[in-house]
Write a structure and sequence with these properties.
With 190 residues, the protein is mostly helical. It is built from nine helices and no strands. The longest helix is centred in the first third of the chain and has 22 residues. The radius of gyration is 18 Å and the shape is elongated.
Length: 190
């Protein structure tokens, strides 16, 4: 099998895994279900991803890569600007399946022993640090007595909460506009 064909097959498996995880959650997803979605046997899929945890890791890494590629960030971004962050929210509004997968996996990861628990722990640390740096650049606009370190987890909670509300009721919740409204409240215009 050619390397390009193997890469294409891996990508199709990862995309199928996104779909199945979004539909069933991580615990309800099996390698057999993902294999069936891409027209492989479970053994065939295991040639590319020997375990369910390996597939989960690939799904999470791929999601991060897509975000970094679409917003010109390196693997360890210094901090997004408010405009880049608002653009990411706009972009996420065009891909509900990926947002749903991320939301399901992040919620599932709070349970003890979940294979993505450490990934999300580390990711939220990085995201809080990046959000803190973004807010530090606009320190003079922050509410009195509020530091960037205090506001960073709140801003991330707004992002995640808007995603969840949008997934549940997209006709009522305009995620991109609501996030821009939040930035306006902070005095940070995208």
């Amino acid at each position: 099998m050619s390397r390009a064909r193997g890469t294409d097959r891996r990508e199709s498996i990862i995309r199928a895994a996104f779909e199945v995880i979004a539909e069933r959650g991580y615990r309800g997803t099996s390698l057999a279900a993902v294999a069936e979605r891409v027209g492989l046997t479970q053994q065939g899929l295991m040639h590319y991803f020997p375990t369910k945890e390996d597939l989960l890791t690939a799904v999470l890494e791929t999601r991060d890569e897509w975000d970094l590629l679409n917003f010109g960030q390196s693997a360890t971004p210094p901090a997004m600007t408010a405009t880049q962050l608002a653009d990411l929210v706009d972009y996420n509004a065009t891909r509900p399946g990926i947002v749903q997968t991320y939301t399901v996996l992040s919620a599932d990861s709070v349970t003890e022993g979940h294979p993505a628990r450490q990934y999300f722990h580390d990711r939220y640390r990085r995201v809080r640090a990046g959000m803190t740096r973004l807010l530090e650049r606009n320190r003079e606009l922050l509410p009195p007595g509020c530091t960037p370190e205090q506001l960073a987890p709140i801003a991330i909670a707004v992002l995640d909460g808007l995603q969840l509300q949008w997934l549940l009721d997209p006709d009522e919740v305009d995620m991109p506009q609501s996030f821009r409204d939040f930035l306006t409240l902070l005095g940070t215009k995208p």
